[in-house]
Amino acid sequence: MTKQIKLAHGNGGAENNELISKVFYKAFKNEILEKSEDAAIIEDGKLAFSTDSFTVSPLFFAGANIGKLAICGTCNDLAMMGAKPKYLTCSVIIEEGFDINELETIVESMQQELEINGASVVSGDTKVVPKGSVDKIFINTTGIGEVLKSGISSNKITDNDIIIVSRDIGTHGATIFASREGIELTSDLKSDCMSLYPIVKKLLDNDINITALRDATRGGLSAVLNEWANQSNICIEVEEDKIPICDEVMGLCELLGFDATSLANEGTFVLAVNKGDSKVTLDILKLFNNNASLIGKVTNTHPKKVVLNSSWGTSRFLETPTGELLPRIC
Amino acid sequence: MTKQIKLAHGNGGAENNELISKVFYKAFKNEILEKSEDAAIIEDGKLAFSTDSFTVSPLFFAGANIGKLAICGTCNDLAMMGAKPKYLTCSVIIEEGFDINELETIVESMQQELEINGASVVSGDTKVVPKGSVDKIFINTTGIGEVLKSGISSNKITDNDIIIVSRDIGTHGATIFASREGIELTSDLKSDCMSLYPIVKKLLDNDINITALRDATRGGLSAVLNEWANQSNICIEVEEDKIPICDEVMGLCELLGFDATSLANEGTFVLAVNKGDSKVTLDILKLFNNNASLIGKVTNTHPKKVVLNSSWGTSRFLETPTGELLPRIC
């Protein structure tokens, strides 16, 4: 590893994984942490426990703000483990001089999103630091969820599973990028930021055989698929033309040379479900977003690899993102 | 309230309380939060849940560093509710360019302190932000503890209780101040930063009738006593000459006009225990620090007030600290 932290160490991709394993996992080594995915499973499998700090810039963007994002992010991590978000803590670090009206707007957005999840903030912390010590406001939320369905894990995906994405990808990353760079889009492009628990609840209520769930945040779809391929020692083969990407995101990607599969999402998740349940899963997902799509299958062709098949019959490996596309995306 | 956040909004005193109640409690309003003290009590009283973000500057100081502090801070909040620290999350926000060796030292300190508490970090998050967006590194730890003795609360202190402080006060605040201002002390002054669970465990093992416990962090001893007087609708009368203050802290306070009772501590706690248990409590505390002292009693003279009696027979009210003595103390 290099001797200094680089932006890429926070990209949700290869360098991020290296920092986590070589510094944090090495020191904190324990069985629960090793098995931890989006959330740790504790108390004999009864509870899920997850943390996230939010540093997004700008604080307010099309579709959400840092407050809504901070609740969605942590509640979604719990939902991805088959858990119902229940108790959250909220810890804010605020820069001296920050506008109290903006703070109120942010906190109100948090409460609205908590209600969607049926969760409550039960404890908090407020730190104020001198001007220049932090850029405006950072928020940490940490949540406890009640596990409704145990055993959801990215370690046991097999060729009995198919891979589905819940909606079109990349809108959060594209929105933040456009907003940051002052790109005026005449379109309706907005972040996908939303709480996923209501969708997960519907899937569980319908007894879908879910093998794994993961929200495609930093590192996007390609980070999730590569992590899954690696953890389950499988090959995931994806049909490129089945990956839903809206025109606005596609346009921005073509303009700037981005790959939509690496763009961050904040309300889009990937599912590995039993083949037999693919139709009913898609039917349920389409109640929430009509762009849900079956994008791929699991094979043994290239273990630990993700293969992207184009409609022209060519194929290539889809790699874990490296470098830093855009810091402070979440 | 003012329209902008001021440093005083993070002081652990009057302005801090106002911000919390008018912005956060107002939006997040719920029964658990309202009853929450150092930690929230959840799951039918079985678990304690607490969060803290650490922004201390400098990162390394006499007696500890931000890593040790981040584990002590959250574990102590759990211990103060009679809980054994069990699971923690660790979320770091790191500035681009931060030295990885320093990060490793910090994380190793965290692990050492976790072992003292018998707790584990089970989930984490790592964000890297561009240079200038954060000053070096901020760490959030959020913990779940197993409640060993329920009912410890600052709402029910009565004149059957006496007030004890576990050791001499103010060393953390004084250490950070001296270090920040480049005051070279020829003394051994160092932060009191330490894990309090082992002491609490010993008290519980000896069946001490504990009414309330509170570590005297931001706002110091005077913030804790005022909060207790207010919450239990009592008067706390403190004998000034019984408050243990070491020579170095006393010297710094005299030099700079500080009041040691407002200085932050990170390993010093206040106890309200049943009168009959005062001797055995002091005996146990003195096993850990010989400066433990019975400092006061509970009366009905001035409800919701703290009275400081001097050895000359005069007395004055000890008020909740206002303004900001020293930002980024923790």
Fraction in helix of chain A? 25-40%
CATH architecture call of the largest domain in chain A = Alpha-Beta Complex
CATH fold description of the largest domain in chain A = Phosphoribosyl-aminoimidazole Synthetase, Chain A, domain 2
End-to-end CA span of chain A: 24 Å
Structural class of the helix and strand makeup of chain A? Answer: alpha+beta
Q: Which oligomeric state applies?
A: homodimer
Biggest interface in this structure?
Answer: A-B, 75 and 75 residues
Number of helices of chain A: 9
Q: Tell me the strand percentage band of chain A.
A: 25-35%
Low-confidence stretches of chain A: none
Explain what the structure shows:
Two copies of one chain form a homodimer. By secondary structure, the first copy, chain A, is of the alpha+beta class. Chain A folds into two domains: 36-147, PurM-like, N-terminal domain (60s Ribosomal Protein L30, Chain: A); 161-317, PurM-like C-terminal domain (Phosphoribosyl-aminoimidazole Synthetase, Chain A, domain 2). Chain A is 32% helix and 26% strand. Chain A is built from nine helices and 14 strands. Chain A has helices spanning 14-28, 31-35, 66-79, 100-117, 171-181, 197-205, 220-231, 247-256, 278-288, and strands at residues 40-42, 47-54, 60-61, 64-65, 83-95, 120-129, 137-147, 161-165, 210-215, 235-239, 269-274, 293-299, 306-309, 315-317. In chain A, the strands form three sheets. The first copy, chain A, has a seven-stranded mixed β-sheet. Chain A has a five-stranded mixed β-sheet with strand order 1-2-7-5-6. In chain A, a hairpin with a 4-residue loop joins strand 1 (40-42) and strand 2 (47-54). Chain A starts with 13 loop residues before the first helix and ends in a 13-residue tail after the last strand. The mean pLDDT of chain A is 96. At the A-B interface, helix 1, strand 2, strand 5, helix 4 and strand 6 of A face helix 1, strand 2, strand 5, helix 4 and strand 6 of B.
